[in-house]
Amino acid sequence: MRFANWINNDERAAGRGGTGAVAGSKKLKAIVVVGHHDKTPQPKDPELWKEADRLASATINDPKNVTAPKKGGLSLYGTNVLMNITNVMGALPTYNAQHTCIEGAEKISGEYIREHRLIKTTPATPALWPARRWWRSTSTARPSALSPTSTSPPGPWGPTRATRTPTGRLRHLPLQRLRHGHHRAGNAIAVLMEATEKGYYQGPDGIRFGDKEGEVRVLEAIAHRKGVGDMLAEGPARFAKAIGHPEIALEVKGQSIPAYDPRGLKGMGIAYATSNRGACHLRAYTPASEILGVPYKTDPLAWEGKGKLTKLFQDLSAFTDSLDLCKFSQFAEGPEEYAKQLAAYWGRPVTPEEILRIGERIYNLERYYNNLAGWAEGSDYLRALPQGAF
């Protein structure tokens, strides 16, 4: 399965680009990292670090920020707080992105789950946000864990497959056990559903939108490469191409789009097209600006200024990724805060401009490597989607 993930602690999945498949091809089963607290790097300027840490904590805990523990949307609902918002604004890909909103999306929103299904949260350490949310399925009394409650899993695992209830997602076989990534697997299912309904795929194992039991069968088939699962295990893009309809695979450079439709978020479209790992929302999360107004508010339907905005997020994300910082910190912190933190560790002045320059160099180096690996002129594309698909 080309989109197999790494699985940690039986529930945490990583490797949306299929790095788990790469490891499997090399017969690499696990990577174990053993650290020693006494060898943890220490800031060269402890006093400056205290100041930088205080500033970062104050910014993150500020009640007006979405990051505020037990107050902000991320803390209360996870990133799934955006489900209702993206649905209303026409930025939620549904029915394999044939539409950009769906009736009943609120039933899988963060707000609904917190009010009707939430049992408890388990905090992450040292992060400020709950790492896991335990919630109850409508089909069983057994609590289920969703780690984390995110727009990303409910997006591919709900609206894009036309499933609008928590029951639909909770009854699935554990994706982690099957080594599935929720984005690619959800998109693979959605592509098969559209192909089946339009007659592009006429095999006996085709399924239609909303067929939850069929999804379970196909998930197992993908993991074990049986029947149509053997084709889908190659990824949604290859499957769509194999049946003669590559246009139904919503992808960039072979990577399926996540839960943000570029028709309702123009910056996201540019970010998908120019991302260094295909259609990824985490290389440049423009909805921070287009929806939340971070670091400044932009019109989600406007193209003007979105190139500059995308580059800002690409450079900043490349920098924070290099330090393994939580993505959520960017909703409260910016180059100024990160510059103070890095200056404390380096023991020399660091400017916000230098932070972005570091990120830019990382991004350019990634792009250079990808070009050596075969990317060329024309690789940065975004397939045209139907307009007015509401």
Question: What can you see in these coordinates?
Answer:
The chain has 390 residues and is mainly alpha-helical. The chain has 2 domains: 146 residues, Aldehyde Ferredoxin Oxidoreductase Protein, subunit A, domain 3, CATH 1.10.599; 170 residues, Aldehyde Ferredoxin Oxidoreductase Protein, subunit A, domain 2 (Orthogonal Bundle). It is 40% helix and 7% strand. It contains 16 helices and 7 strands. The protein has a 3-stranded antiparallel sheet. A hairpin with a 6-residue loop joins strand 4 and strand 5. Helix 8 packs parallel to helix 11, helix 14 packs across helix 16 and helix 15 crosses helix 16. The longest helix has 21 residues. The protein is globular, with a radius of gyration of 21 Å.
